[in-house]
Design a protein that fits this description.
Blueprint lengths: L1 H15 L9 H5 L3 H5 L19 E6 H6 L5 H5 L5 E5 L7 E5 L11 E5 L2 E2 L18 E8 L3 H4 L6 E7 L5 E7 L3 E12 L2 E12 L3 E5 L6 E5 L2 E12 L2 E13 L2 E2 L2 E2 L5 E18 L2 E19 L10 E2 L7 E20 L5 E22 L1 H5 L5 E12 L8 E11 L4 E12 L5 E11 L4 E12 L3 H5 L6 E2 L7 E13 L3 E13 L2 E6 L2 E6 L3 E13 L4 E12 L10 E11 L2 E10 L2 E7 L2 E9 L2 E11 L4 E8 L7 E2 L10 E2 L4 E9 L1
Length: 677
């Protein structure tokens, strides 16, 4: 403990020591006034430009400069500084973190939050946004975290929240970084504009060798040494010419060794996710009061998972020819999706407006197969002896190859009753080709009592269609589908009080959600089965405070408390808090941030049977920091520290034998320079 304390004091003294001023001031770049924060444009809630004071949602925003000031790297790390959001590592893989909002997450996947990047819906119909959890934040201009149902605009998956990400379009910057675990990182941003044409581009590469862990081997019940190496690549580009825009987005992540889908296997374990999205958008203003947008996109997604299924020798007497090899599988899943979105905005008299449109999606699973050394389908269906191939042959189908048509129609009316009160009324109807349709209504009233006080009363209904993996998985040792699943629905009431003055911005939210026919995940002999359960309730409060302590100091804090959450959400903390301290002075900037999550629980797996007795894990407090110095307008130095006190902590597992939970990385440091050109 003495070493940790000395290290923290040393870093604090180093960070706050005065450095001579230069021509360009980080203070001017980093710290928007509270008045400016209140005027930040928020678009995800209603697809119109609104401010924090009048937007009819529970919203938290971060600008790109605020994000770059934090000692974090990816989207899931940022979530832990937002009320009701939490993220943490599980046994799915070393690089993929699962996340939730308002205390509810289905099993080991995140299906209740819709993530948009520049208006593009990138999550797959397989039902998981996990492949976006490692999304780097270097090129972000703004992130909007919308808490509460969003199906009245976006349809399925906007069940309990929406994350709207806008990328940077105005910077030219190159950065190179190096750090702990042999981390190497390079980032490039480019922008060029002339007359009616402009182009922006971002590229990112990151790789590390991972930390070392001593964990329990899944198959031998002996301690083994493993690592959690991670690789991430991203390319994003936007080209605009007059009313036309083309977007290209590519992101790939790769994690090896450690745990994959709850099991260990050094040298074989692998998870690799790839997303490629191509979009064309046409915008047209018919007149000063009416404009339309048409967006056509095609998304390709690929997921590869290499996983060991049994110990060596388990099938020696049950295979033909007899072999003492372990059962190994290399699963490949590929999905394509065509999306057509038509949106219209009509300004009416007295500052009222009408938004309406249509969305059509056609996700199609094009490949879902396992290459295995034994016939996994025969093994899972108890057909003995099991054929042994002696090589990896793609013989086992793990999901029915299907496509589904999704058609959504929506309308929304923003009615400014008087100078103090605004009402939002909207609804969307979604029809699926393989399940019944659903109507998602919305009603919101925002009342500005004075320049300092405003109140919001919100109601929203949302639904989540069963994903294709929840319905159609077969021959899968991890999960089995249920084609009879029904959509789950949620009805949410929210009351928000917002107060602001020259030095304070204060938000308090109370919410109550009731989930009908929730889709729940049951574990039977280490295999997940999806069914519709009984009613679930979520009730809680959210607090967010931003205050300027002085010209150079700013404090930002959050606190979340769940009074009631689903019984199945034992992996989620009931209390979360975060604190961000910013100091700006001339050419240097220092940030200290901390996030806390209370205790979590998970069931211990014993002999392949789910023991319902829960194991509790202690709460975690993680401290991060970042120091930046601007040498001149073109060059900047940054020093970043994550888990600065080298906290040893564990997070919930699904079926890891080791009852202590999933280990996480210790202290990480990163140093680098960036050049603006």
């Amino acid at each position: 403990m003495d070493c940790k304390f000395k290290f923290a004091v040393w870093f604090l003294l180093l960070s706050t020591s005065r450095i001579s001023a230069d021509e360009s001031s980080l203070n001017e770049l980093s710290q928007l006034s509270l008045a400016q924060l209140l005027k930040i444009e928020i678009t995800a809630s209603t697809l119109t430009k609104q401010s924090l004071s009048d937007v009819p949602s529970s919203v938290t925003t971060f600008s790109g400069e605020q994000i770059r000031a934090l000692g974090i790297d990816d989207l899931t790390e940022l979530m832990n500084y937002v009320p009701s959001f939490q993220s943490f590592r599980t046994a799915e893989s070393g690089g993929i973190k699962n996340y939730s909002v308002r205390g509810r997450r289905l099993g080991n996947q995140t299906r209740e939050i819709l993530i948009l990047i520049n208006g593009q819906r990138l999550a797959t119909d397989l039902g998981s946004g996990g492949q976006l959890s490692t999304l780097p934040l270097f090129n972000i201009s703004q992130v909007e975290f919308i808490r509460g149902p969003g199906s009245a605009i976006y349809g399925s998956n906007a069940f309990l929240g929406v994350i709207n990400i806008k990328t940077q379009r105005t910077e030219k910057r190159l950065g190179v970084y190096s750090g702990s675990y042999n981390q190497r990182k390079a980032q490039l941003q480019f922008f060029e504009k002339s007359n009616n044409f402009d182009i922006s581009m971002s590229a990112h590469y990151q790789q590390d060798d991972g930390a070392q862990y001593l964990i329990m081997d899944t198959f031998s019940n002996e301690l083994i040494t493993t690592h959690d190496p991670l690789m991430s690549k991203l390319f994003e580009s936007q080209v605009r010419w007059k009313e036309h825009q083309i977007q290209v987005y590519f992101h790939t992540t790769e994690a090896a060794d450690f745990y994959i889908a709850g099991t260990t296997s050094n040298g074989f374990n692998l998870r690799k996710d790839q997303i490629l999205n191509f979009a064309y958008q046409y915008s047209h203003e018919w007149n000063e009061n009416f404009r339309s947008e048409i967006n056509i996109s095609q998304r390709w997604f690929s997921n590869q998972v290499n996983r060991q299924l049994t110990a060596e020798g388990d099938l020696f007497f049950l295979s033909q020819p007899a072999s003492d090899e372990a059962v190994m599988g290399k699963a490949t899943i590929e999905e394509d999706e065509l999306r057509l979105w038509w949106h219209n905005h009509l300004n009416l008299a007295k500052s009222d407006s009408l938004q309406f449109g249509m969305e059509f999606r056609q996700p199609e699973l094009t490949q879902a197969i396992v290459a295995n050394n034994f016939d996994i389908a025969d093994l899972l269906n108890n057909r003995f002896p099991v054929p042994y191939y002696g090589e990896f042959l793609p013989t086992t189908q793990i999901q029915s190859l299907r496509s589904r048509d999704v058609l959504g129609l929506y309308a929304q009316y923003l009615w400014k009753i008087n100078s103090q009160m605004t009402t939002t009324l909207g609804a969307r109807y979604d029809n699926y080709s393989d399940i019944k349709g659903h109507m998602s209504p919305r009603l919101a009233v925002v009342y500005e009592l004075s320049l300092q006080h405003s109140f919001k009363l919100l109601y929203g209904s949302a639904f989540r269609a069963p994903s294709s993996s929840e319905m159609y998985l077969v021959n899968n040792p991890v999960s089995l589908g249920n084609p009879d699943l029904k959509p789950e629905t949620v009805n949410t009431w929210e009351v928000i009080w917002q107060y602001n003055n020259e030095n304070w911005l204060f938000n308090m939210t109370f919410f109550n959600s009731v989930i009908e026919e929730p889709i729940i995940q049951l574990e039977v002999n280490s295999t997940s089965n999806f069914v519709n359960g009984t009613r679930e309730k979520i009730h809680g409060s959210e607090l967010e405070v931003i205050t300027d302590l002085s010209e150079h100091w700013r404090l930002r804090g959050t606190y979340t408390r769940f009074f009631d959450k689903p019984v199945s959400s034992f992996r989620e903390s009931e209390n979360m808090a975060s604190l961000i301290i910013d100091y700006n002075q001339d050419n240097y900037h220092w940030n200290l941030s901390a996030n806390y999550q209370s205790e979590k629980s998970f069931p211990v797996i014993e002999s392949g049977i789910n023991n319902q007795a829960l194991t509790n894990l202690d709460g975690t407090l993680l401290i991060n920091s970042k120091f930046r110095y601007q040498f001149n307008p073109d060059w900047q130095l940054s020093i970043q520290l994550k888990n600065g006190l080298d906290e040893t902590y564990f997070t919930p597992s699904r079926n890891a034998i080791d009852a202590q939970g999933i280990p996480n990385r210790g202290r990480e440091w990163l140093i680098g320079v960036s050049h603006s050109f």
